[in-house]
Design a protein that fits this description.
The chain is mainly alpha-helical and 166 residues long. It is built from eight helices and two strands. It has a single domain, classed as Putative cytoplasmic protein. 63% of the residues lie in helices and 6% in strands. The protein has a two-stranded parallel sheet. The longest helix is centred in the middle third of the chain and has 31 residues, at 49-79. The radius of gyration is 18 Å and the shape is globular. It starts with 8 loop residues before the first helix and ends with a helix. 24% of the residues are buried.
Amino acid sequence: MSKITPLNAIEMQCLRQSFGLSVEQVATLTKCTKEQVIAWESAQDTAPMQAQKALLDIDDIIEMQVLNTTDGIEELFKKEPKRHLAFVVYPTQALYTQYNPEFLSSLPLTELYNTAAWRIKKECKIVLEVEVTLIALDAEAYKAYRADNNMSESRESRAKWAATQL
């Protein structure tokens, strides 16, 4: 296993901000205090390697999702013409927990999942020249769509609903 190069204060802050997380959320993820995170980001203290590793692992998980998803999209477009895609994102932790529990163990916060979706959107645009729109899940509209179309709750149903929102 390779050693992790310690992150400096600016890198810690940039990593947190790239995830769209608050200081409090990073404290929770790293099992540290808000005051400790503030100290890391202001160069008053160095983040423990365990905390740095936890954040870098999340970044790796997001990057793997980006690669896997864009590879899948690229394969899809080998079979059919390019089109505009819609990805569901979650405006609240409660909706994320309810509708996308399979990601909670690897990306426990909706902000992390949404960060992955944003990075996928950018990668699709730059590498695949595919437009992706992020659609915030509107639970009531989604439930009505499922009822109108006699559909059960599933990732595929959410994707179909999102496509109708374009």
